[in-house]
Amino acid sequence: xSKAFTKDDASDAPLVVVPRAPLPxxxxxxxxxxxxxxxRAELEAFHAERARGQVPLTTAHARIGALAERIASxxxxxxxxxxxxxxxxxAHVTARTENETTRNWQxxxxxxxxxxxxxxxxTAPLARALLGKHAGDLVTVRTPxxxxxLEIISIDYES
Length: 159
Prior knowledge:
Blueprint: E1 29-31, H1 33-51, H2 57-73, E2 74-76, E3 92-96, E4 102-108, E5 119-121, H3 125-130, E6 138-143, E7 146-156
Parallel strand pairs: 1-2, 4-5
Antiparallel strand pairs: 3-4, 3-7, 6-7
Helix pairs in contact: 1-2
């Protein structure tokens, strides 16, 4: 008999739900408007997948619970309320490296972070080094290659 018609389809493998990016204990869940919208869209899409039966019930409950918790704990930060001469949450930062390369980052929430696209979580070492600094400041950041010095060229909240 073909394997397709047996009850061996059910996996005995343990349920694995990829956890959300961690937030240090006691740290507010700061989010940008874009990040909060993405969390809500992810939750809505997951509900739709579950309604179509595309996701096992146990996986659905775990993922929906994690998303709902993140949305409920979200603290929306309005970039217009930030001091525009200082690196704060939501800032787009342009910096020059020691080898004269220009780099751009935005300080975002942990769920929105995507270093490959220049989105750095506010809890990341790079963001912590930049926060509170001003254009013209020099910042030392520990990297896998050792300490690297950056010069902040500009801070923008409108990009």
